[in-house]
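stage 2 :: seqdesign
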Protein backbone atom coordinates (compact mmCIF):
# COMPACT_ATOMS: atom_id res chain seq x y z
CA UNK A 1 0.00 0.00 0.00
CA UNK A 2 1.34 3.43 -0.90
CA UNK A 3 1.79 6.00 1.83
CA UNK A 4 -0.74 8.85 1.53
CA UNK A 5 0.92 11.36 3.88
CA UNK A 6 4.47 12.60 3.40
CA UNK A 7 6.51 14.57 5.92
CA UNK A 8 4.52 17.73 5.22
CA UNK A 9 1.15 16.57 3.98
CA UNK A 10 -0.39 15.14 0.86
CA UNK A 11 0.97 16.31 -2.46
CA UNK A 12 -0.16 15.96 -6.03
CA UNK A 13 -2.03 17.52 -8.90
CA UNK A 14 -5.52 18.87 -8.25
CA UNK A 15 -8.27 16.48 -9.34
CA UNK A 16 -5.83 13.58 -9.64
CA UNK A 17 -5.45 11.02 -6.87
CA UNK A 18 -4.84 11.78 -4.04
CA UNK A 19 -5.80 15.47 -4.43
CA UNK A 20 -9.49 14.81 -5.11
CA UNK A 21 -12.67 15.82 -3.32
CA UNK A 22 -13.38 12.15 -2.57
CA UNK A 23 -10.09 11.69 -0.72
CA UNK A 24 -10.44 15.04 1.07
CA UNK A 25 -13.92 14.07 2.27
CA UNK A 26 -12.67 10.76 3.66
CA UNK A 27 -9.73 12.45 5.41
CA UNK A 28 -11.94 15.13 6.98
CA UNK A 29 -14.40 12.53 8.26
CA UNK A 30 -11.54 10.49 9.73
CA UNK A 31 -10.02 13.56 11.42
CA UNK A 32 -13.39 14.40 12.95
CA UNK A 33 -13.87 10.85 14.24
CA UNK A 34 -10.39 10.70 15.76
CA UNK A 35 -10.78 14.05 17.51
CA UNK A 36 -14.22 13.14 18.79
CA UNK A 37 -13.00 9.81 20.16
CA UNK A 38 -10.04 11.52 21.77
CA UNK A 39 -11.75 14.45 23.47
CA UNK A 40 -15.50 14.26 22.83
CA UNK A 41 -15.52 17.22 20.46
CA UNK A 42 -13.70 19.84 22.53
CA UNK A 43 -11.28 20.66 19.73
CA UNK A 44 -11.93 22.60 16.54
CA UNK A 45 -10.20 22.02 13.26
CA UNK A 46 -8.72 25.07 11.55
CA UNK A 47 -8.69 24.94 7.76
CA UNK A 48 -6.25 27.23 5.98
CA UNK A 49 -5.37 27.47 2.31
CA UNK A 50 -3.49 29.51 -0.24
CA UNK A 51 -5.19 31.30 -3.13
CA UNK A 52 -4.98 28.57 -5.77
CA UNK A 53 -8.35 27.46 -7.12
CA UNK A 54 -7.96 23.94 -5.74
CA UNK A 55 -7.77 25.42 -2.23
CA UNK A 56 -11.35 26.61 -2.50
CA UNK A 57 -12.52 23.23 -3.82
CA UNK A 58 -10.75 21.32 -1.05
CA UNK A 59 -11.81 23.76 1.68
CA UNK A 60 -15.47 23.13 0.81
CA UNK A 61 -14.97 19.37 0.74
CA UNK A 62 -13.04 19.30 4.03
CA UNK A 63 -15.73 21.42 5.66
CA UNK A 64 -18.43 19.03 4.42
CA UNK A 65 -16.60 16.03 5.85
CA UNK A 66 -16.10 17.67 9.23
CA UNK A 67 -19.72 18.82 9.46
CA UNK A 68 -21.01 15.38 8.47
CA UNK A 69 -19.30 13.97 11.57
CA UNK A 70 -20.36 16.80 13.90
CA UNK A 71 -16.93 18.42 14.19
CA UNK A 72 -16.38 22.08 14.91
CA UNK A 73 -14.16 24.02 12.53
CA UNK A 74 -12.70 27.43 11.78
CA UNK A 75 -12.05 28.65 8.25
CA UNK A 76 -8.97 30.87 8.29
CA UNK A 77 -9.15 31.79 4.62
CA UNK A 78 -5.89 32.28 2.76
CA UNK A 79 -2.81 32.05 4.99
CA UNK A 80 0.84 32.82 4.22
CA UNK A 81 2.84 29.81 3.06
CA UNK A 82 5.03 30.10 6.16
CA UNK A 83 1.99 29.25 8.34
CA UNK A 84 1.37 25.93 6.66
CA UNK A 85 3.57 23.17 5.36
CA UNK A 86 5.22 24.00 2.03
CA UNK A 87 3.03 23.20 -0.96
CA UNK A 88 0.18 21.97 1.23
CA UNK A 89 -3.13 23.42 0.13
CA UNK A 90 -5.24 23.55 2.16
CA UNK A 91 -3.84 22.77 5.58
CA UNK A 92 -5.84 21.54 8.55
CA UNK A 93 -4.81 21.82 12.19
CA UNK A 94 -6.56 20.70 15.41
CA UNK A 95 -7.08 23.68 17.75
CA UNK A 96 -8.90 24.28 21.03
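stage 2 :: out
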Amino acid sequence: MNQLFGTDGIHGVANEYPITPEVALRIARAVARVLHAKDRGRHKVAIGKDTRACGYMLETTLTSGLVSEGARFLLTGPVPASKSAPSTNPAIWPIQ
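stage 3 :: structure notes
- The chain has one domain: 21-95.
- The first strand starts at residue 44 and ends at 49.
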